[in-house]
Design brief:
This protein has about 240 residues and is an alpha+beta fold. It has eight helices and four strands.
Length: about 240
């Protein structure tokens, strides 16, 4: 074989190899896209199933919005407040709103709402204590044509959150509290999903027992103790 022919043969071989590599890379990329799509599809199916299991009582847009975000436990607590809010009247004052039961002529709670900043607070301080908006604040939001609960009033610890390892926040001292809230949300979802059948409950009980044993083998840090103390574990 001449030098030119040999060179052409080598080039042809290299091209076939590179072409195969490119096809392999494309194949891997397509598989990754398909897997990601399947993950998203599974999450959407789970959410739809959860929504089908939830009974909406008020028909308010805020209720359906909260149902798609909150854990079953947190949503049931918020739903109670939404139902009660319909029995309250709100009166705009110079410095906010006065909210009281429709059968009352005196008293009530003071609610402060800043629509542009999405900030609302009530003198009953229920949100500060439990992380669930009170009936008084919800009444003011409804009167003000607010169709979604402001994001800051849907705490991370009460949200439905994917447990995929790739989506968990990275560990750092600054987000330690957020990770505790994430765990609280996951535990709430675990309890709600496990309670749907005896088989699920048996599996959950067995696996949690194993997990607890492994966790108790790990050292305890003072930072972890300090971060746990201000969090309300209302399951």
């Amino acid at each position: 074989m001449t030098t030119t022919g040999h060179s052409k043969a080598i080039n042809a071989f290299i091209q076939r190899f590179l072409s195969a590599q490119i096809r392999l890379v494309q194949f891997v990329e397509q598989v990754a896209v398909a897997v990601d799509f399947k993950d998203q599809e599974a999450e959407q199916q789970t959410m739809l199933q959860n929504l089908q299991n939830i009974c909406l009582k008020t028909g308010a847009p805020m209720e359906s919005h909260a149902a798609s975000i909150l854990t079953p436990f947190a949503f049931s607590k918020l739903q109670e407040q939404l139902v009660l809010a319909a029995h309250y009247a709100s009166f705009q004052m110079d410095d906010g709103f006065l909210v009281r039961h429709r059968t009352k002529l005196e008293g009530g709670r003071k609610v402060y709402w800043v629509p542009r900043e999405g900030i609302i607070s009530c003198s009953c301080y229920q949100f500060e204590l439990s992380g669930i908006l009170c009936r008084h604040a919800l009444r003011v939001l409804s009167t003000g044509n607010c169709f979604q609960i402001p994001d800051r009033y849907l705490p991370l610890r009460w949200r439905r959150i994917s447990t995929s390892p790739a989506k968990l926040p990275h560990s750092s001292p600054s987000d330690h509290t957020e990770r505790i809230q994430l765990l609280q949300s996951m535990v709430s979802t675990l309890v709600a999903d496990s309670a749907k059948s005896k088989e699920r409950l048996d599996i959950a009980t067995e696996q949690v027992s194993i997990l607890l044993s492994r966790i108790r083998e790990q050292p305890i840090t003072l930072q972890g103790v300090r971060d746990i103390s201000p969090i309300h574990w209302n399951l």
